[in-house]
Amino acid sequence: MRLTTFTDFGLRTLMRLAGEPDRLFTTDEVAREFRISRHHLTKVVRNLAQAGFIVTRRGVGGGFQLARPASAISLGEVARALEGHHALVECFDPDGGACTLTPGCRLKGRLAAAREAFFLELDATRLIDCAYPPPRPQADP
């Protein structure tokens, strides 16, 4: 399975926020750092906020940051939220697509199982495990 660029940008953004969870980031800043389109990233940030992964603040001193701890966010839930509307193959489309094999297809179930295994593997990884930059180890008191 291949993730869309939209999901890739979303995961990278969340990884960056997880690296400095107490800080507010701006779209311009993240777009520059990752050398991605600010316009495209704006849409990604909007979707991440709507899905409850980030909170946004408008105005001077505004920006966005994680809505909950990175340890409480799985990569699977992020991928599902951002990829959910993309059909793996045409017959997965809610409208049924135009596949002539649909009535007797023996492939669709296997593809659905493979997709679920993909997401289950991502469920096993927390955002904190992929934080960028990685969190610094706490010094012993």
Automatic annotation (TrEMBL):
Question: What SUPFAM superfamilies would the database entry show?
Answer: Winged helix' DNA-binding domain (SSF46785)
Listed A to Z, the keywords are:
DNA-binding
Q: Which domain of life is it from?
A: Bacteria
Q: Please provide, in alphabetical order, the Gene Ontology terms of the cellular component aspect for this entry.
A: cytosol
* Protein name as annotated: Rrf2 family nitric oxide-sensitive transcriptional repressor
GO MF annotation list: DNA binding; DNA-binding transcription factor activity
